[in-house]
Amino acid sequence: MGELREECEGILERRYYAATVDTSKPKSIGLSEGSLARDIDLVPAHWSENVTYQSTLCQRDRGVCILDRSVPKTLMNLSFLHIDRLDVGDRPTFGGLKMSIAC
Fold first, then answer.
1. For a disulfide at 1, which of 42, 60, 67, 96, Cβ 3.0-4.6 Å?
2. In which domain of life is the source organism classified (predicted)?
């Protein structure tokens, strides 16, 4: 995972030479200035096809792994499952659940 992070940093520095590439963040790489209209945080990650995903083949069960350099440790993130659960809970409230979270 560390190699992926280093490779991403190198590619971004070469490709966006006019931008500021901030590699100090533990989980993401920041891009700002140059030709960019706004600041961007990129998170190098790879798919995690866990046991649940392999048995269901539902995209919501697929995870991503990200590196936290401050630990250093690889963290599993089930963001698609989280989004699916929010969508399921939001339907009966006609958007009220998501609006209450956003406030």
1. 67
2. Bacteria
Residue 16's Cβ-count burial label (10 Å; 0-12, 13-18, 19+) is middle
Determine the pLDDT at residue 103.
Answer: 63
Domain parsing of the chain, residue ranges: 1-43, 45-103
Q: Which long-range contacts (CB under 8 A, 24 or more apart) does 72-81 make?
A: 72/2, 74/1, 75/27, 76/48, 76/50, 77/45
Q: What is the pLDDT of residues 36-84, one digit of tens each?
A: 999 999 999 999 999 999 999 999 999 999 999 999 899 999 999 999 9
Strands (DSSP E) contained in the chain are 20-22, 29-32, 40-42, 45-48, 63-68, 73-77
